[in-house]
Design goal:
Number of strands: 12
Structural class: alpha+beta
Shape: globular
Helix content: 25-40%
Distance between the termini: 63 Å
Radius of gyration: 20 Å
Number of domains: 1
Strand content: 25-35%
Largest sheet: 9 strands, mixed
Amino acid sequence: MIGVQTQKRSMLQGLVHRLSSPLHTLGRRNGLWYLLSRALERGSGGRVRLIRYLLVAQPLPEGPPARALRDPGVTVREAGHGDPLLQHLPHPAAVIRGRFAQGARCLAVVRGADPMAFLWWTEGPYEEDEVRCRFEPAPEGEAVWDFDVYVFPRHRFGTAFARLWGEAGARLRQRGYRASCSRISAFNAASVASHRRLGARVTGMRTFLVLGPLQVSWGRGRPGFHVSLRDAARPRVRVPSRAV
């Protein structure tokens, strides 16, 4: 009997930890949204998704830090459509084609033929590929939209990201841009923390509830609330850089 009580107590403690951990790492509000998201996904067998984004803006760096330039074997170059480097990304070919079709560009950090990290951006509106939404960095001509920064696991504790972000910032500043806007998952504490270290500021929030073809979204600014049933009916969300 004592053994059963101990097991029940252990299970209860484990449940309390699983429920309280997101509240601690994400904050009460986003932690509760995360728990709701997990409950909906599990209860529906993956048919219902709840996605919540923080919309952020951060200043573009003027170049990579000196420590990121010490490896002479590392180079940074743009990867265009059809570049073999892109085959290393964990995305379907159709997603990559769609990005280039809307004018997105990709920068890669490589050592020889070994890719270390990738970063994508658009110098204008971005058609999100995870949900139906058109994000518009503002003001036009001063802010870009960056997305899908991917650093290969074996390079995440080195200087690959610093080199990538610094080189991207230097190139974009030469073209007159001063800030970059992006969206990050409100449920990814590590990503939120890393963006804050780069000087990012939250300028908005957007939540999406997806059930099959039905998508409902809401957030700060316009449109405050949006419902769509087809790909062409996307909310247009302006993301201000606030002249960061």
